Amino acid sequence: MKLLSDGPAIRPESSKETLASALAAQLREAILRGQMAPGTRLRLEDLRAQYGVSLSPLREALARLSAEGLVLIEDQRGCRVMQVSESNCREVVKLRCEFECLALGESIRKGDSEWEVSVVAAFHRLGKLDAVRDRRTNVPEWEKVHRAYHQTLLSACGMPLLVQFCATLSDMFDRYRRLFLAEHIPDPAVPGEHQAMFEAVLARNDKVALAILREHIERTGANVLPYVQRADAAGREMAMIKKADRRA
Description:
This protein is mostly helical. Helices cover about 70% and strands about 5% of the residues. The chain has helices spanning about 20-30, 45-50, 55-65, 85-110, 115-130, 140-155, 160-180, 190-200, 205-245, and strands spanning about 40, 70-75, 80.
């Protein structure tokens, strides 16, 4: 496995964050950005040396990422970054539509004035970056602000487990979307959908807001799917070659 950098040992950002949590966040971001490609073997000794940690928090961090569907832990064979697959992509898109629409509908119904203020602020930050036609020059910042906007929209639903499920599904789909955007320009329809969703939410028009959100998720999934299908086919072909080599 190629190491990402030779930087300083990882440190938690706050006293409440454990070393395993900080490490899981770093590894998660590397996977989502495509710095650790699908199928990459994760060698514990390499990671331990790179991040300056012991094996205990490293194993805990990988276990967390395994629960999130980003890392595959293979018995007696170590760990690797989860492969992309068409079936998984389709499932994640379908679940996102159902869960996020449920959360947004509840947020529109329950959200108070403080929630509205937070939605306005989150949309303002995103709108400034959406106005830049080619987001590829500022991907990390846009991803951070984009995620915060969607999380803020769902945050007033009053169901912490639902918010957690939505966040996990968002992470799983973000990997597909970021791998796609590494080779393609951003969808020009996205900024308009963010604007329309924002206006419908502030108007408390749940019917329109949910229709926009569902279309937003489904169209992004449709954009990404051809890339995923090619990557999935390439992964299966490589697996067959490796299997044949082991038999030879």
